[in-house]
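Task 17 of the worksheet. Students: predict the tertiary structure of the chain below and write it out as structure tokens. Keep your answer in the requested format; marks are given for formatting as well as content.
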Amino acid sequence: MSVVREIFILWRNGEIPCLFHLFTGLYCPGCGGTRAVKALLLGRPLVSFLYHPLVLFCALLALWFAWSYFLYRRTGKERYRPSFDNKYVYAAAILTAVNFIIKNVLLIFFGIDLLALLPKV
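Model answer:
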């Protein structure tokens, strides 16, 4: 019953609990994502990257695609036409896996809770 109580307290305080982290003590592959979005919206891209690099990667990718589409529509040149390729999906998967591994290695072997050290957003 204490787990349910803890989840309720976190939820009431405006924090969305990560059940994976709550039950295992480890970071899940998405841990820090919500805080990364919030930091990016507050204009703190470095903090956003440190919370979860995938958020900044996706934001930059979206800007790149928007700019490419704008140029394509403006000029009509095929070289500006944005095309989605699986390499972006693979890059995102690798980025997420590396983030997951680094945060958990720091936590398990060195006792460094990286997300707790970052500034609150």
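Marker's comment: The CA atoms of residues 40 and 48 lie 5 Å apart. The first helix runs from residue 2 to 12.
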